[in-house]
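Kindly go through one protein, given below as sequence and tokens. The question is how this chain folds according to its tokens.

***
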Amino acid sequence: MVEFLHQLDRALYAALPGALVGLLILLTLAPIRLPDVMAAAPLLPLMAVYHFCLFRAEALPAWLLFVFGMLYDLLQGGVGAPVGLSALQFLMIRQVILGNQKYLVAVSFTFIWLGYAMLSAVAVTMAWCVVTLLSWRFIDPQPLFFQYIVSLFLYPIFGWILGRGRARSPLNTLGNRS
């Protein structure tokens, strides 16, 4: 029985990043009847992708991020959400982190936050450029800017909450150093 519970714990721990990204996508798409709040809604899926790709990249393979990004765009619908844009953002973040992971995991949280600030700025700017080019008209960047600012200031809280799981991980080698 103990072995079964240990295996169940490992399986749930391995599935947590994907399940959480999926849940945050659904939470982001939940209909809130406050238009001003939706204009500045934080980029929760992007935060989770950044955090988990940084600390547990093997739990979010590229194919899963592609599927999540496509589903996110399809569920979002509308003119302002070209299908594939979120997948491109998620995969771009994953590739940049994987290329620099050995430098990023050993730094203080301030530098991790700075990395999030830079990568999310690139992702938001890329989204704005793609939507502007596809619509052939100037799109006001102010809502995306507010989303970016709200996400930037919420990431320390979000990163701290997600980081609590690393300390208890049976697979964590970085968190077990004392």
